[in-house]
Here is the input.
Amino acid sequence: MINLYSTQIESLSIHRIGNKSRNENIFLSDSPYALNDELTALLKEYFFKSFREKEENYFQFVNEVDVEFNPLYKIVTEIFNNPASAHEKSKRIASLLYEQSQHPHIKSGEVYVTYLENLTIDNEKVEAVGIFKSELKYDFLQFEEKGTDLELLHQQGVSLNKLDKGCLIFNHKKEEGYKILSVDSNRYDTKYWLEHFLGVEAFEDENFYTKKYMKFCEDFSKDVVLPAEDKKEQVMFMNRAVNHFAKNDTFEESAFLNEVIDNPDLIPEFKHYKVEKAPKYHIEDLTEFPIANTAVSAARKKMKNTINLDTNIQIKMDFINPESAEKFVEKGWDEEKQMYYYLVYFNKEQKD
Here is the structure.
């Protein structure tokens, strides 16, 4: 979990980079930008809003030889070691991004490099380096009094409502390549920002493993449980899986299988499916790991608990009280109508 409420912008450097393949130039500011209170408040909202609204998927710097050879990792480490050098290092960061701006679709824009203090991550107060880029320009109108008339001026500028690209590099878990959050609203070249510039991969922690394993379970429910059983059992399987994650601090696969899979015949199917599909989810040898509660809560919100029937009827299952579906919903086959049916037991209808 992160907390950006008390974050302070200690320094801000602004540069402009063009598209190198179109022979557009790079402009590097000589000095850091002098902020005032009003502008600081606006920029904090502009820089951080997307990170507050986005699910926390962490990345880390990587390199095929050693993370020390990742150029951005090296520059950021130098800033953390000597914050007074942030502006000079920001020029190297902008130049690095310019060198990666080779794809014809990449837009020119402004690059903001900030040194930040008082961020909280994993209950620890740390510093961070923020790198942001504005690309899209929007039309707006300005008004100017000229004598007895009001004149309309058409201009273009950056909207503060949405950040185009950005990352927060926390001074946390340095040995593992730092913990990094990234946003990219304009995905015309997905490799440009994450791979070519940042040089990152997913940070494999409890949050990563919890999300990946739950996604694996969701796909297993669609590919195996649904064809072997029915929609009700698929929904109930995912309900039991989510509840197992929610009530445990540590995941242990054998305990999970014994509690979540009702049909013993599906346990070998689960193990076979894992062998076949595990590389896709990065869980090949994963049988035990700490569970991240935030990842479980996010997965529960996305979980579909509705049975949609071709007769334009929906049955909504209750994830809070799963025993109700087990006890009071039955599926059968009507020979006369040659149709399936669901039989639902109840005492009285609830008022809205």
